């Protein structure tokens, strides 16, 4: 039955991606001009820009969307390059909230028991409300939110089934650079570091990979998110190139710090799990 469990895991990834897409589209349509005005106001100074990046990315669950908006604002000279870089930093910090949601809720409780009723009610609203109405967009947001956790449930159970049927000893002996490149390729293909993070946490939970392997996958994933911004900014004005390079350098610096403090992070993680368990 290993084939069924693989498709279950893949269906979970698809539902997770669909959920993030639904949430992103609904928030865009519900806020529209107000969202752009908020983004502009929030970049009046560097501290507000960092906080704004965290808040907006936590809502949209997509640092790529926020970063591309920042790039457009910089190109139009609406915000300064320094404040744009601060907003990009906040967006990257905000993207980590997905991992905490997955860790705190997805692996500690049977979250699908809550997600299924939400999906049912929101799905009815999505089908019945007029397409351009606020009710339709709100229903789509909660439908996407429920899809995140239903997809996570499928990923977790599917990964557990795959692990029991396969020998991962050869994979665990692979160099860390293989995991780094794998994370980069996966995120470049699916364009969602949040989904990649959920896959990594599911694999760690099932025992398919070790802690250091997960760190390498995560670092590759974060570098994979820079591709879209790099392509959009590299041929633009000098300010746009600066933001694109700044995002790339931030991810490289972030990766170096993760590697340097990996032992301390693993120790803190074990303490947290013992406390929760």
Molecular structure report:
The protein is mainly α and 277 residues long. The chain has one domain (2-276). 84% of the residues lie in helices and 0% in strands. The chain has helices at residues 2-31, 33-41, 46-60, 63-75, 81-94, 97-106, 112-128, 134-165, 169-172, 176-190, 193-206, 211-224, 226-234, 238-260, 262-276. It is flat. The protein starts with a helix and ends with a helix.
Shape: flat
H/E topology pattern: HHHHHHHHHHHHHHH
What share of residues are in beta strands?
Answer: under 5%
Tell me the structural class: mainly alpha
> Cα distance, first to last residue?
31 Å
- Give the mean pLDDT: 74
Please give the number of β-strands.
0
By oligomeric state, this entry counts as single chain
Q: Helix fraction?
A: over 70%
- Biggest β-sheet, characterized? none
Radius of gyration, in Å, reads: 19 Å
Number of domains: 1
Number of helices: 15
Low-confidence stretches: none
